[in-house]
Amino acid sequence: MAHIVIACDKFKGSATASEVAEALRLGISDVLDDAEITCVPVADGGDGTTDAALSISFERHTCRVTGPFGRPTEAVYAYDPGSGTAVLEVAEACGLGLIPASEVGTETADGKDASSSGVGELIAHALDKGARRIILGLGGSATTDGGAGMIASLGARLLTDSGDEVGPGGAGLKELATVDLSGIDPRIAEAEIVIASDVTNPLCGDEGAAAVYGPQKGVAATDVPDLDDALSRFAGLVEEELGVRAGSFAETPGAGAAGGLGFASLAVLGGTMESGADLVLDLVGFDRSVDGADLVVTGEGRFDTQTLQGKAPARVAQRAREAGVRTVAICGATDLSAAQVRGVGIEEIHALTDVEPDVARCLSEPLPLIRRLGRRIASNME
To answer: Is 4 helix (H, G, I), strand (E, B) or coil?
Structure first.
């Protein structure tokens, strides 16, 4: 009897990791009806991280927080009372997905004005539940405020020369004169903050949050230099308040993640940065699941060079190889060569476009096609 582990990430915009796994399970079972199949949804620290936690022992919690442009929104997080661990995604509170695409970059949703305050509210809610360890998944944010909104909602005071609170977003930091961290929620110092991210950008400069990601969030190209200067000002005042060398945190790889939320999470929350993919694999017990398996099936919506740089499918394959287990993969489409895929330990890759050349259908109706790929993979094992 074959033992197969399905450890797929989401097909972004088309299917969740759990939906992908179930379609594969059905396809494999169509051919190998006696196979032992274990489904382990995975993610790389961005969207899907909470779903991965909810697939095991974690409880689902919902709270109302302030969205990136001040409108209330419902945010979901996962919490395990036994371990005191909460899994949060910043995108739930300040995500680009919370904004209608038609509004991004308009006067009502200008990226330089977006605030991360809801992330602080989400953290506070988890602390109220009793969380002692918070895993903060960075990715998908609409903000480029360096995490200023997050720390303000946790008790920091960010003031102008006249003693007023600065305005929202990165734009508001242009008027920043004083940073006072003495009012930060004391529970933060008592909690372990783990930052899940695979982004290596610093906070400022040509590779920083404003320059690289700002335009994707509706920041006009002409506003990028001023926004970068504002983030630099913010970072300098935070580091001065902390009594550390200028750039100690702002120049750290990953400080620019999620519009600079990486910076504030490292500097003010005292967080530690970890690979998002490995953190999730540890969380869901991947190594235990793959013990004694005959095959691992991994995948995500698109396989490209970013996949090879430590994203979830690559880490799944590498850890399966360390356990002596073969790995194959599925995806929506790929532009990688067979040699590139084998380089991360994946023996073969099956794309939806192999069985359905209509890309629009692959995006809108992926699950029947994924089931077909499951049958193909199972047939190759007979």
So the answer is: strand
pTM for the whole structure = 0.90
Q: Which of 9, 45, 40, 43 lies closest to 194 in space, CA to CA?
A: 45
Whole-number Å distance between alpha carbons of 158 and 361 = 49
Tell which CATH architecture fits domain 49-276: Alpha-Beta Complex (3.90)
Domain ranges of the chain: 3-42+295-381, 49-276
pLDDT per position as a tens digit, 206-262: 999 999 999 999 999 999 999 999 999 999 999 999 999 999 999 999 999 999 999
Q: Model confidence at 203, in pLDDT bands (50, 70, 90)?
A: very high
- CATH classification for the domain delimited by 3-42+295-381, as one of 3.40.190.10, 3.30.420.40, 3.40.50.10350, 3.40.50.300: 3.40.50.10350
225 CB-contact burial (10 Å; exposed 0-12 / middle 13-18 / buried 19+) = exposed
Give, rounded to a whole angstrom, the gap between the first and last alpha carbons of the chain.
11
